[in-house]
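Here's what a typical entry looks like (RNA polymerase sigma-70 domain-containing protein):
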Amino acid sequence: GEEATLPSSSDSTFAQIARHLDVEEDRVTKLAKLMEDPVSFEQNVDGRDGGRDGSGGGSVAGMTFDEIIGDEGQDSPDLFAYNERLCTDVKNMLNTLSERERKIITLRYGVLRNRQMTLEQIGSEFNVTRERIRQIESRALRKLRQPERNSIVFDYTESFPM
């Protein structure tokens, strides 16, 4: 293979790189300049400072680098607030059940804990059979289907944020 050597002058380096890549030297120079200059996340992709320019049209030109890159690991403030309200409302709905029913539903479906348990595991915790837990679960679910109870969270099924 062919090995490239870099001369001491950056101008001639750009010319060599351009020849090696078969692109215009001006393009290599611009790319090198971009790599040197710090870029603000608040700067628009098209180089202007500030947020959206209102032009719309689905173009990213009016968007900031921060808006495009985002933080995949972090929920948006709107989604975070939505989830907080949903948790509060689910707790309020579960509070319409007896303490035993509430605990069984919470354990069975992993509500607010994210860890589901089997009927048998819950039965062991309550010292009753899995069939008895199933009966209590069934009664609690019937109660939760009542409109006066589930209206608390019904709106969430219609307005889930994307």
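The chain has two domains: 10-69, 77-158.

More examples are in the samples folder.
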